[in-house]
Design brief:
The protein is of the alpha/beta class. The protein has a single domain, classed as Rossmann fold (3-Layer(aba) Sandwich), CATH 3.40.50. It is built from nine helices and ten strands. It has helices at about 10-30, 85-90, 100-105, 140-155, 170-180, 230-240, 255-265, 285-295, 320-330; strands at about 45-50, 60-65, 75-80, 105-110, 160-165, 185-190, 225-230, 280, 310-315, 335-345. Strands 1-2-4-3-5-6-9-10 form an eight-stranded mixed β-sheet, with helices on both faces. It is globular and about 60 Å long. The relative contact order is 0.16.
Length: about 350
């Protein structure tokens, strides 16, 4: 540790940032530990907001915090490529709200939806046939939406930095943003994230349905279109395969899975106009994931300065050991970086 220059000096600020970030990182690990259960608590307050994004874009954000006591450290939770924020982080059942768990540990949690997801503005192209337009909402647009919400939180709380937690499929968004605006992120947590660490990926890489058979190495637009539809079955297919026992309820609470499916469908007001009911999600994250799965890097971890925790589930089907190894290797300017593998956890550990 370098010698301190005092509370107001640069080294003092680094030390303060490190202590705050390490507390956040430790709390995230505890919140994700198997067996943690966070029932609804009368101390929890929820407020919903519409945040101004780029022209014509409104972004949904929910604040989850303790009703009493001083303001906590803010952290923004960012969903993955398919299921929006509330279904991912704030289900109204015991064990279904990581946001409430973090709030009870002293954080002020902000759950957001990127454009095209949940309660945020959907591009008009999502009301037209899936084949009529190019892929929607890639990482550059998602990063701009994250920036709008982060800046709103910073202004609202009169703070210079915010912590960020990012789920895996589509996990490049927070890293992409943090590499562009490192001064605005106090800590970064990446869960089950791809990072171009390998050229091989059986699910979304070379030889998968996401590769254009006529142009190897290119994303197959026919496999997804501008956006896609998901009903309940795809939500659990890969999850079921990840659980190595016949009785899946011995690993996950049926009340949580039921609430997860219902909340995912509820994020799309048009879901019940189709049979079976399904919700829409842009395909941009899948295109970006295909490129990451085939060895490309869409952002540079060497630009990130915040303490970074790379979380991986032992039974994850999305990220690979090569991704976290390359990430850790390239995080050369962080105050601290750490890799934690969660034993026996699946991709859906959150």
């Amino acid at each position: 540790m370098r010698s301190s220059l005092g509370r107001n000096g640069s080294a003092g600020r680094r030390l303060s940032q490190q202590k705050t970030a390490l507390c956040l990182l430790a709390t995230i690990v505890v919140a994700f530990c198997p067996g943690s259960a966070w029932p609804e608590d009368a101390r929890i307050s929820r407020r919903d907001f519409q945040v101004s994004g780029e022209p014509g874009i409104r972004l949904f954000a929910r604040e989850v915090r303790e009703q009493e006591g001083p303001a906590g450290r803010p952290v923004v939770l960012i969903h993955g490529a398919r299921v929006p924020g509330l279904a991912s982080f704030d289900l109204p059942v015991a064990g279904g709200s990581p946001a409430a768990g973090l709030a009870l540990r002293g954080f002020d949690v902000y759950i957001m939806d990127v454009r095209g997801y949940g309660r945020s503005t959907r591009p008009r192209e999502m009301d037209e046939p899936v084949s009529a337009h190019p892929v929607l909402v890639r990482s550059n647009e998602a990063a701009r939406d994250i920036g709008s919400v982060v800046d709103w939180i910073r202004l609202r709380r009169k703070l210079s930095q915010v912590g960020a937690v990012r789920l895996g499929d589509g996990g490049q968004w927070a890293g992409y943003y943090a590499s562009l605006y490192p001064e605005k992120i106090s800590a970064l947590i990446l869960l089950n994230s791809l990072y171009g660490g390998s050229f091989a990926h059986s699910m979304v890489g070379h030889g998968s349905d996401l590769e254009d058979p006529a142009h190897p190495g290119r994303f197959n637009r026919a496999a997804c279109g501008a956006y896609n539809f998901s009903d309940q079955k795809p939500l659990f297919r890969a999850w079921d395969r990840s659980i190595p026992v016949e009785d899946k309820s011995s690993w996950r609470d049926p009340a949580v899975t039921k609430a997860y499916a219902e909340a995912a469908l509820a994020t799309d007001p048009s879901s019940h106009t189709r049979t079976p009911p399904s919700f829409r999600a842009p395909c941009g994250a899948l295109e970006d994931s295909f490129y990451l799965a085939t060895g490309r890097q869409l952002w540079d971890a060497s630009l990130i300065t915040a303490p970074t925790l790379i979380l991986a589930a032992e039974r994850d089907f999305w990220s690979r050991p090569d991704d976290r190894e390359l990430l850790q290797q390239q995080l050369v300017h962080t105050v601290r970086e750490k890799v934690v593998v969660l034993p026996n956890a699946t991709h859906f550990v959150h």
